[in-house]
Each structure stands twice: as structure tokens, then as C-alpha cells.
Specification:
Blueprint lengths: L5 E8 L5 H10 L1 H5 L4 E8 L6 E8 L2 H8 L2 H13 L5 E5 L5
Antiparallel strand pairs: 1-3, 1-4, 2-3
Helix pairs in contact: 1-4
Length: 100
């Protein structure tokens, strides 16, 4: 698995009064995340049915690249915000693409 591309799909539900705070914090780390050597894709989505629900779709060169991302200072700061405003723990799924 170490040399395979990793697709991360994550879900985060925040408190209704913290939507803008989450957007600000999440969007602030997009440029740095996309500039990481192992990042192939980094997108954030907001549910159209429940505005408190956010999703990340990320593709990384391999698991080591993702681990490096999680270890960056900017991600650590972002996750501190998440811990304060999340309504429930984030769901993080590591996947591999099986379709063409």
C-alpha cells in the first residue's frame, strides 16, 4: 500500500454557528496542501442538503505523502480548529480507486 495512490474521503459536521469559521480555516490551508510534493488533488465540498456538513476529496502520491501532510504545522493548526467546532468526530476514509 505504501506505493499506491491514496484517495482520502473525509466528512466533517460542524455546529451551525461555526460554518463560516470552518470555511475560513479549511480554505486557508488549501494552497499549502496543494503545494505539497505528494498532493495530486485537494478539494473541499459543502453539502447542498446540510450546510453544516463538509467533505474532503484528496489524492496523494502514497501513504507516506499523506502522513507528511498530517504532520505539517498548518494542518495541526487547522485540526485544532476542527476539534473546537466539530459537532461530531470527523470520519476519515482512506481508499484506492478501482474504476478506470
Amino acid at each position: 500500500m505504501n506505493d499506491e495512490k491514496i484517495v482520502l474521503i473525509a466528512r466533517l459536521k460542524v455546529r451551525a454557528d461555526k460554518i463560516e469559521e470552518l470555511k475560513t480555516a479549511a480554505l486557508a490551508i488549501v494552497p499549502d496542501s496543494r503545494n505539497e510534493a505528494g498532493c495530486l488533488n485537494y478539494d473541499i465540498h459543502q453539502s447542498i442538503e446540510d450546510k453544516t456538513e463538509f467533505f474532503w476529496h484528496e489524492t496523494w502520491k502514497n501513504k507516506a505523502a499523506l502522513d507528511e501532510h498530517f504532520a505539517t504545522p498548518f494542518f495541526g493548526e487547522f485540526f485544532k480548529v476542527v476539534e473546537k467546532i466539530a459537532e461530531e468526530p470527523p470520519q476519515i476514509n482512506l481508499t484506492k480507486k478501482i474504476s478506470d
